[in-house]
Description:
3 copies of one chain form a homotrimer.
Chain A: H1 3-35, H2 43-72, H3 75-97, H4 111-134, H5 139-150
Helix pairs in contact in A: 1-2, 1-3, 2-3, 2-4, 3-4, 3-5, 4-5
Amino acid sequence: MDSSVVxxxxxxxxxxxxxxxxxxxxxxxxxxxxxKKPDGHTSAFERLSCANRNCMDAYPTFLxxxxxxxxxxxxxxxxFAGIVYLLVRQKYFIGYLGQTCQSTPGYLFGKRxxxxxxxxxxxxxxxxxxxxxxxxxxxxxxxxxxNAASALLLIP
Amino acid sequence: MDSSVVxxxxxxxxxxxxxxxxxxxxxxxxxxxxxKKPDGHTSAFERLSCANRNCMDAYPTFLxxxxxxxxxxxxxxxxFAGIVYLLVRQKYFIGYLGQTCQSTPGYLFGKRxxxxxxxxxxxxxxxxxxxxxxxxxxxxxxxxxxNAASALLLIP
Amino acid sequence: MDSSVVxxxxxxxxxxxxxxxxxxxxxxxxxxxxxKKPDGHTSAFERLSCANRNCMDAYPTFLxxxxxxxxxxxxxxxxFAGIVYLLVRQKYFIGYLGQTCQSTPGYLFGKRxxxxxxxxxxxxxxxxxxxxxxxxxxxxxxxxxxNAASALLLIP
Lengths: 156, 156, 156
C-alpha cells in the first residue's frame, strides 16, 4: 500500500481537520487574552470560557463523525459538511462574544450537520455490507446522491 | 487500495463509533433539557452536567484506544469491548440521573475495558514488530486468544 | 491491503497514542486521589482539576494533529513530536501539583509542537497535490528535511 494512495483518499478531510485545529487554537487564544485582562474574571470571561468548553466538548464527536463518513463513503461531501460545521461553530463563538442575548442557541449546535455525517456513515457501512453479501455495486450511485445532498446543508 | 477493502477492516469500529456519537447526543440532550427546566440550575442539573463532563473527558481516550486496538490487531474484540464500554457509560449516566448515592463510582469508569483495549494494542504492535524482525507469523493464534478473552469482559 | 502493511506505517503513532492514554489515566487517578482526601475540596484539588481539564481540552486537538502529520508525511518525526508534547504536558501537570507560582504557563502549552505538526501536515498534503498535478516526486527530500527539523523541537 503506497502511502500516497491513502493520502489521495483523505486529503480533504486532513485539510478540514487542520482548519479545525487552527480554529481551536484561535478559540483558546481568545479565552487566554480575556483571562489576562486587568479587571479579572468578568462575565465576558465566563461566557467565553463556557462557549469554548461547549465547542471542545463537541469536538471529538464531530471529528469522529466526519472521519467515519469520509472514510466509509466518500470524502468530498464529508469535508464540505465539516467546513459548514466549522463556520457554524465560528458563528456560535462570535455570538457568545457579543453582548446580544441571541447567544447559546443550544448545547449541541450543528445537530443537522452531525446528523448528515452520521447518515453518510450509515449509508457507507450498509452499502459495504450489501456489496459484500449481495455483490451489487451501486456505490457510485450513492456517492452521486450524497454529493448532491450535501448542497442542501447550505439551506439555513 | 480500493476503498471497500479499508471499510472491510473497520466497519465494526465505525458502527460502534456511530453508536457512541448517538449516545453523546443523547447525553447532551438530557443536559439541555434539564437546563431549560423552569426552576433553574438545580442540583439535578449540577449532577447531570458533571456526569456529562466526565463522559466527555474520557471520550477521546476511549476512541483512541478502541481504534488503535482494532486497527493493530483485529476489529471484532475491539468493537465488542467498545460496546461494553458504551453500556457501562450508559449505566453510569443513568446512575447519576437517579437520586441514589451509588452514583460517581469513580472518575474513570470502565478502567478494565480501557486496559483490555490497551493490551490489545500492545499485543498488536509487538506482534507486528516480532513478525517484522523474526518472520514468525503467529498473528492468527493471537487473534483467536483475543476473541476468546473479550468474552471475559462480561464478568462484572 | 494486508493489515500488517497498515500497521507498518502507523505503529510509532500507535505507541505514542498508547502512552498518552496511560498518561491520561495517570492524570485522572491523581485528580481522583486528591478528591478523596478527607479535607474536602481544597485549593490543591481545584488546581489539579483545572490542570487536568486544560490537558483534556487540548487532547483531541493534539491527537488529530499528530495523526494527520504522521499519515500525510512520515511517522517518525510526528511520533517524536508527540513524545515531546507528552513530556511538556507532564511537566505542566507536575508544575501545577507544586505550590510554586510558575504554574499555568499558558492555556495552550506546547504551541510550538502543535505548530510543527500542523506544518508537517500542510507539507504532506501540499506535496501530495503537487505530485498529483505535476508528477514530481520530491517526497523523500521533504521527509529528510522533516526528520532533521524535528530535532529542533528539543531546543527549549
